[in-house]
Amino acid sequence: MSVGTPHVTFVCLSGVRVREVEVTSLGMLPPGLQARAAAIMALPPLGVLTLAGMTPAPWTLSLHETQRVNDAAVEAIVRERPTLVAISALTASILEAYELARRLREQGVATLLGGLHVTACPDEAERHADAIVIGDGESVWHEVLCDVERNALQSRYRGAAPFDLSQAPLPRFDLARGERPRFTVQSSRGCPFACDFCAASRLLGPFRRKPAEQLRAELSAIREIDRRPFIELADDNTFAAGGPHLDLLTALAESGARWFTEADWRLGENPAVLRRLAASGCVQVLVGLESLVHEHQGMGAKRTSIARMMDAVASIQDAGVAVIGCFIVGSDGEDRESLDRLARFLEQDPCADAQVTLQTPFPGTELRARLEREGRLLPDRDWSHCTLFDITYRPDRMAPDELQRAFIDLLRHGFSAAQSTRRNEIRRAVWAKARSMA
């Protein structure tokens, strides 16, 4: 542990990971997903920047973003003589986070792990770090720092209640300066639905919105770095609560930013929002269409027919906002014929872009709990396979290798050069419509 002024080093293990050799070696990430992967990698790690914004004097701080744990990454962190290293990682990179924590601890550096995976698997995570944070990090961050200063770091920290977003600090966006084509802002946390494949509604607490004045302060701070920023809302379902959302849309419009978010199809049946969406700077929204063959448990008011969802997509794009239609492949009931049917659907679907991933039973989800009860999780697939592109369970109507092969064939067919050209044309037409309405 360092002496003198205490220092916290934030480490974020970034990047999109794929284990399946053919997906990577053949360049099978489709163009839409390649662009999405690049965008995700370029996003500042909002969670740790938010904790940085709560870090009081005399603490100093720094940020390290790395795709892989190697000697250079470890040496760069140790060189700073940190009092504490706070590590953030997703499930696909959590084993690397454990390895990083191990190597740092061997050199006498105190380590802290947090995030969704740690919240879902605290007993596992606790074995690999000096301390873990379960749930919202903001709720316990000051306690963690005080304990470090007293040399009394606890093994676990958990907030007594979900963090109140009205108390959210201004993130330290300045720590992520550099070539940043996108910035992140969170306008809400959690989701009121409980889709069985999603951990957000279970691990993030109740659905909460951030007050508009705080959003204005964050957007203003970003504009100090980039006068015409592109913002990605780090929300699970921005418009899930219904309503006109005029405070959010007004704040975004005033910022002059272009922005992207995720929402469910009901956005297309919300005329109060649609009338202002493009004018507020929104250029693209990802909409979960999920599956042609299966209605996932817990979808609540999101449950409807594919025809109704596609009508909603048309309404969103008529409002001048491009839609990424998101499909999850491999749910119960899926077979080769249904995947061929999805391929035919993708040949003519009206979305400006598409995203197709494999169903992935992430820890903390009802999906994983059910597959575990049924003995269908593949024993040779560790957390590094939870990439959205690698099979980790036994499907009900196909062999695992058969589903993986069919998924690759679907990507090859549904994201051909001709299909990419067609979607580019749709996207240009949608954005031309937005310009004509301005």
Sheet/helix structural class: alpha/beta
Report the C-alpha radius of gyration, rounded.
22 Å
- CATH names the topology of the largest domain as pyruvate-formate lyase- activating enzyme
Return the average pLDDT rounded to an integer.
90
Please work out how many helical segments DSSP would assign.
17
Keywords:
globular; 438 residues; Rossmann fold; alpha/beta; six-stranded parallel beta sheet; 2 domains; 17 helices; pyruvate-formate lyase- activating enzyme
Describe this structure in words.
The protein is of the alpha/beta class and 438 residues long. It is 39% helix and 16% strand. The chain has 17 helices and 14 strands. The strands form three sheets. It has a six-stranded parallel sheet, with helices on both faces. A six-stranded parallel sheet has the order 7-10-11-12-13-14, sandwiched between helices. α5 links the parallel β3 and β4. The longest helix has 21 residues.
Write the layout of secondary structure elements.
Layout: E1 7-13, H1 21-25, H2 31-42, H3 46-53, E2 60-66, H4 71-78, E3 84-88, H5 94-106, E4 111-114, H6 116-120, H7 122-126, E5 131-134, H8 141-149, E6 156-158, E7 183-185, E8 188-189, H9 200-203, E9 208-209, H10 212-225, E10 230-233, H11 246-255, E11 258-263, H12 271-277, E12 282-290, H13 306-318, E13 322-329, H14 336-348, E14 353-358, H15 366-373, H16 400-414, H17 417-437
Parallel strand pairs: 1-2, 1-3, 3-4, 4-5, 5-6, 7-10, 10-11, 11-12, 12-13, 13-14
Antiparallel strand pairs: 8-9
Helix pairs in contact: 10-11, 14-16
